[in-house]
Amino acid sequence: MTEEQEEITGGAHLARALRAEGITRVFGIPGTHNLEIFAQLAAEGIDIVSPRHEQGAGYMADGAARVTGAVQVVVTTTGPAVFNALTALLQSFTDSVPVLLISPGMPLTHPGRGNGLLHEVRNQSQAIEAVLGDSHRVTSPGEVSLAVGQALSRMRTGRARPAYIEIPLDLIETTGPGWAHPAVARPHPSPEPSAIKSAAEALADSQRPLLIVGAGARSAGVEIEELSRVLGAGVILSSNAKGTIDDEFENNLGAIGVLEALPEVLSAADAVVAIGTELAPSDFWPEPLPLPHTVVRIDLDEVQMLRNARVTHPIPADATDATIALTHQLHQTRSSGHSRAAVEWLRGWQDTITAAAKEEGAPWAQLCGGLNDYTASATSPVIVAADSTMCCYYGVQTGWMARRGDRFLYPAGAGTLGYGLPAGIGAKLALPSARVVAIEGDGGAMFTIAELAAAVQARVSLSLIIVDNGGYGEIRNEMADRGDTPAGVALLGPDFPALAQSMGARGLHIETQEQLVTALKQAEDFAGPTLIHITEDSRAATDMLGASEIMR
After folding, report:
1. Model's pTM, two decimal places?
2. In whole angstroms, how far apart are CA 126 and each of 2, 103, 122, 134, 142?
3. Which residues 6+ apart lie within 8 Å of 92 measured at CB?
4. What is the count of structural domains for the chain?
5. Cα dist. 250→102, 234, 348, 369 in Å?
6. Does 516 share its domain with 399?
7. Is residue 341 packed enough to be buried (19+ CB in 10 Å), middle (13-18) or exposed (0-12)?
8. Mean pLDDT of 537-550
9. Range of the domain at 308
10. Which residues does the UniProt record annotate as the domain Thiamine pyrophosphate enzyme N-terminal TPP-binding (predicted)?
11. Is there a single domain that holds both residue 411 and residue 545?
12. pLDDT tens, 218-235?
């Protein structure tokens, strides 16, 4: 029997397969049903990051995957644990982030009829498949390495999305032969010359062109700037595309999906080039988007050509390759006069959008100002791990001036709460030299605040800014705008700095932009997390912070 066919446990097959694929870290919590898996992970020298809740594990893996582009792994036990992680994996699915979820499942011989086995779920893998669409329940110890190879092959090819592998309980410690099944990724499709030529001809005479750029184009920042210059086109970014180009780039319009000015500028355009974006309502709020007749769409996923837009010129290809080819073709067909006219049109809209962003983000001007001062002095990339909270999507998304290479991690698709802190932890573990700032509202922060303890234990140096308006501010505003009496939205929150200190983190309250910059810089020198508490000045805060005081 060769070494590759050695009789080893299902848990050992898993650990060896992960190690062979370059996985050096997993996020997860040991449990009664996965002890053999964790024993074998440790034996293979794979680092284990222990969150305080499986949802935290999923968000940590998501943050690490976003900043590296590499598959990250979450390991849980059965039943409640895997479903705890599933909310985070839903976020990864909707934002196209490669996270591999692995857990035990009911034994092969289990009837699945409510027999009362610990953590029993009637059909765990089928339930997860309904969310992720990619689920594999193995049937022998040796099949584990095949499942890993197949999952990673899919996740490394084309559009990256999560996958799930379930190992029945009776196979984890059962021995059996197996073979190595290395993952194989197909090369990205090259753009068809005829499609490039057709798109360039349609764009050649455009006077009011726009580029809409999503996170699928993150690797094409330089190329997108050049295409923008050739066309004279303004660049609109999705939330997670922030940092693909420099926010100070002369043709940038920014991540303006939340602004009321967005449909106005789109309605005025005569051509749009959408690159690596779903054009999803969760990113670009007016629905449907008022797109012009000419829509060129570049995306690895051919199915995207049929979603959220009527596409006149589909280019199913890698964003970088297609952008280079389109720019080259336009150099031959685009007149400088048309480009100058486009830039002149663009400049007027830049003034309008800048004014709209300042008005919308006014309650968070000091937060954004502090972030901008801090970023300007940073000598390494700055990663902002944001939560689904007003200060992020109305404030930081448009008000923070990211440089090319900085990152804005935002839970756009599923819109989960509690994402920022654990995603920031994962990002910092994956890129230790980066400066990581997590931002959450006081309501969302409580979903995953326990992960501060995980960051302390792992000695993760990052800042957590909590912007406190006394509860669920956005929902309070929506209720008020409907004419309803706000109910269930004012929250009695903890003393956040004291809570952080009780876990071994630093905690402080600040009131000015200058204090924020100082706190962020000091956090870099602390071997652990620093919680920075800010009281929000907004209509929601005026109402709910007063209610919180009454509740005390």
Report:
1. 0.95
2. 35, 13, 9, 10, 22
3. 58, 61, 62, 65, 98, 99, 161, 162
4. 3
5. 45, 9, 13, 20
6. yes
7. middle
8. 70
9. 193-354
10. 9-112
11. yes
12. 999 999 999 999 999 999
